[in-house]
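Input chain follows. Return structure tokens only.
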Amino acid sequence: MATWQFTFSVIPEKVVLGREGNTQYNTKLSDFDDSLSWDGYYLSESSIEKISETLKQTKSWSDSIRQFGCIDETCIELFYEKNTLLDISIRLDLRSLTSDILKMIIDFVKENKALILTTKGVLIKPVLEDFVTEIRKSDAHSFAKNPQEFLTSLNK
């Protein structure tokens, strides 16, 4: 992951809400002791087609990863094991992020009845405003906004 990329996973909503007695989205990753895998959940092929209209499928370093976009820019990676989808990881290049890409990602998450899980373990509903708020809290945003200031702050 590059410093200018905001990285997150997309997980099935039922992994969170399917847990007995759980009705809340605002949960930390540490609250889960089981798998967050897509194994057994459906991923809409039409949502992948919509993604591929903007982010062209590219060759990944691994045959088990279906990749859309360039790895050091905005990209989506679908991780498979024996033809079973296990994980969806997305990297947003905050140097060139557009509102159209943000909307496309939110639509992808919604269409697949999923949630956004940040690397800090924060779960976010696919609501554009909530997602943007979380992006603005990130180190990637701080770096993209002012690289010099961000790098200087690391020494403090």
